[in-house]
Structure formats: structure tokens, C-alpha cells
Amino acid sequence: MPLQFDILTIFPSLFDSPFSHSILKRAQEAGLISIRRHDIRDFAQDKHRKTDDVPYGGGPGMVMRPEPIVEAMEVAVLPDKRARRIYFSPQGQPLKQERLASYLAYDQLVLLCGRYEGVDERAIEEAIDEEISIGDYILTGGEFAAMVFVDAVSRLIPGVLGEEESLKNESFSDSLLEYPQYTRPSEFRGRKVPDVLLSGDHAKIEAWRREQALERTRKKRPDLLKK
Partners of 9 in the beta sheet? Predict the structure, then answer.
């Protein structure tokens, strides 16, 4: 059975392009993942399909109402699936590479994309299992975080990537950044490919790559070495 992604958003068309190309498109065609989009406006309580309102207590901006969110979530969650309901929020736990594989234990991942000043707290209490942050910065909406999440989780599913070996050597796979990569030509504007990569000695190549990964991590992300 494919891993089911359900995305709750007021802008479902934002996902047309990201999910219609390359790896994610092939993964859907191969039946490895399934992506459904739910327009929260369809669950609004008035004829104007209004999903937000002014915050109690005053303050700038608007807040997403709880009723359409909770009702959309109730429709999206499939009763025969082991589901995880996720809200993308700056207050959530940081999304790290080592956590991604844990989501493969679920049959369905239901993703709530917030907008404006956020979501009514009662919707979070009623309909969310986990809050996730993809970084310490603010986005226009949770849709962009959802795109990142779907891509990052999907590529861990066996068969989604053409070469499964590439997963083992990627940045963060063992708390290290990836080693430098080279391809043809062997010399470009006076810069040559390291001789060891042309030697054909696989043991030396692996040792060089490990050394380069460690050195890159020390220089660019020393915090990762604490792990």
C-alpha cells in the first residue's frame, strides 16, 4: 500500500507543480505514495467560505477558525489507517533527518498548513498529534513546509529513488555533511578533479570521501560533530 499524504490547505493549487515533476511524480505513478489535497474553505460555515477571523483580545492579523480545520481533518483521516496528524508551526519540534524514517511507520500523514497569524489553539488541541518546524524562520504559509516534508519523507521509501545507495552517503545521514562531488570534465578553468577519484582504487576513494566529509563538517557545521 502507498504511503498516504493528505494536505489541508486554503490554497490547494499551490501543490500542482511540485508534485507533478521528477521523483514525486514517478513515486505516485508507481503507487509508492498517494497525495490528496483538501480545501479547508470547503468546510467553512458561511456562504463566503471564510476560514479566518480577528483574534480575541486584539492584535494584528487574522487567525484561522477551528471549525473548518477540525471538520476537514475528520474527513481526511481514514478510519482504517494508522494516521499521524501534523501541523507546521514555528513552535514545533525541529525536523531533522534522523526523525524522518519514523514517519514511515504510519499509513497516513495528514498535514495542516496554517496561514495568517496562525491557527485557533482549540483546533490544535482537538485535531493535531504533533507540531513540526522546518527551521527558525517564518514562511508565508505552511504549504511550503508541507512540500518539504512530503519530499523528505517520500525519498526514504524503498523504490522512490533510483539508486538506494545514494541515501547512505547524503548529508546528515550519519551526522556529517556530504563529501565534494565531481563529474566531467576532469579539468574546468584550471581546477582539476582530485587524483584519487581517477585512481580506480575504491578503498582509497572511500577513505578520501570520509576524510573530506569530516573536514567539511568541522568547517561548516561543527555542531553536527557533537552527535
Answer: 39
Q: Is 86 exposed, middle or buried (0-12, 13-18, 19+ CB in 10 A)?
A: buried
Range of the structural domain that residue 102 is part of: 3-154
Cell of 22: 521528477
CB atoms within 10 A of CB 179: 19
Gap between the Cα atoms of 93 and 78, Å rounded: 25
C-alpha cell at 84: 499521524
Measured distance CA(213)–CA(92) in Å, rounded: 30
Q: 162 — phi, psi (to 5°)?
A: -65, -35
Indicate if 196 and 145 belong to the same structural domain. Answer: no
What is the spatial distance between Cα 105 and Cα 151, in angstroms, rounded to a whole number?
16
CATH number, domain of 130, equals 3.40.1280.10
Look-up: residue for cell 514517519?
103
3-state helix, strand, coil in the chain (%, to 5): 40, 20, 40
Give 226's pLDDT tier (boundaries 50, 70, 90). Answer: confident
Instruction: Tell me 187's DSSP state.
Output: E
Contact 143, 14 (CB under 8 A): yes
Q: What is the pLDDT, as a whole number, of residue 162?
A: 77
Residue 110 backbone dihedrals phi, psi, to 5 degrees: -105, 120
Whether residues 70 and 11 share a domain: the answer is: yes
Q: What is the CATH number of the domain that holds 197?
A: 1.10.1270.20
Indicate whether 149 and 180 sit together in one domain.
no
Q: State the pTM of this model.
A: 0.91
